[in-house]
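Exercise 3.2. Students should predict the tertiary structure of the chain below and write it as structure tokens, then compare their answer with the key that follows.

Predict this chain's 3D structure.
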Amino acid sequence: MDIAIIVEGKNDKSRIRRVLDESVPIFCTFGTPGTVQLEKLRKQVGDKDVYIFTDNDSSGKRIRGILRDLFPDAEHIYTRRGYPGVEHTPEDYLIEQFEKAGLESYIQYPVKYEEGI
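Answer key:
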């Protein structure tokens, strides 16, 4: 499976990178994307399977809606309402969400997961 993940910003990307393999490209919208940024994203993603992971706030929901139109077949990953954005979501919850999305083969599990602690 050839996948790509789209997030809002570089801090979200950095947070997700801690739990996903380096081979998974993570693209940023850098806020609400305009026409030029959307076309750039479309070219960067190419024919990869897209996973959209934005914040659970009004801005994140607006961006998710724009990306849903651009990538109608994308899978959507959500952070819990109580977390202040993807960048502040605990790693164990990120891992849970990526497992639910069927991305286990891309997850970099911390040692505590591997040892069953």
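Discussion points: The domain at 3-106 is CATH 3.40.1360.10 (Dna Topoisomerase Vi A Subunit; Chain: A, domain 2). The chain is about 40% helix and 15% strand.
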